Amino acid sequence: MKNSPILTPEELLIQWQGHRSLTRRTIKRFPDDKLFTFSIGGMRTFGEMCQELLSMTVPSAKGIATGTWTQFGEIEGAPITEPVQTKKELLEMWDWSTAKLEEFYTQTDPERFQQTDTAFGQWKGKVWWLLFYAIDNEIHHRGQAYVYLRALDIEPPAFWER
Amino acid sequence: MKNSPILTPEELLIQWQGHRSLTRRTIKRFPDDKLFTFSIGGMRTFGEMCQELLSMTVPSAKGIATGTWTQFGEIEGAPITEPVQTKKELLEMWDWSTAKLEEFYTQTDPERFQQTDTAFGQWKGKVWWLLFYAIDNEIHHRGQAYVYLRALDIEPPAFWER
After folding, report:
1. Mean of pLDDT values over B78-87
2. DSSP structural state of residue B112
3. Distance to chain B for A41, nearest Cα, Å
4. Between 1.20.120.450, 1.10.357.20, 3.40.1280.10, 1.10.443.10, what CATH number should domain B9-70+83-151 receive?
5. Gap between the Cα atoms of A94 and A21, Å rounded
């Protein structure tokens, strides 16, 4: 059966949320005073990287579902619209994003994944690829956070647990 | 059409190979004398992480295609079966793995992706998930290599180029 799917939309959502759950646990491992201050080699702090992830996640989920790509500040209902500055604020926004992502995702017509779109007026590709980019970018930065944690002598969460 | 696929097997192969290409360029950025010596926070060197990636990639592709999960040393035709020790050896094995991966992948019946299997007698899950795990693990460790490169004052390759 050539039409056998690789994975279903439900499975992709579980995969996405599994990664978000692991990133949340990674954020939690950081001491409050290191999340927005500690970095290596002139890179951003993990807190700043998470701000980037926040700015992509819900706007991407909305763009995927609706074809309308809006900036983070224009998404309705966000409890915090400024850059987050504390671990508490970051976790609050993370949880809001996780719920909002699911809300948009479950409204997505499965035909969208094979359509071509231009994310944020800039990145053109098939919708599945735009979604994978958001997940891959999160894995990439979380991997960097693992180095920060190890350099701080803190054990990161197990990579295989989602 | 509920049967619209998220992505096709051909697209997933391009995605996988795109990540391998980016990791190859990341390996190339390391100075020869740092790849197997430099690390942060007691972690493995990036050379050692790449050995792990080598040990997973072709055996995973073989397991996905055939249902037979064998250790790296038992895969026929590898030019080097011992752990690699130099950048030259690593790149040679990387290129062999990329070609071999494609050979196994193109033999894979698309129905495999939705089947459940146990990778290496240990990790049970749907075949798509086992494949995604190999890709995600590579993204994770490559993200760590970006921190090593920045700490060495070397610019990593652009994440969005594949």
Report:
1. 91
2. G
3. 4
4. 1.20.120.450
5. 10
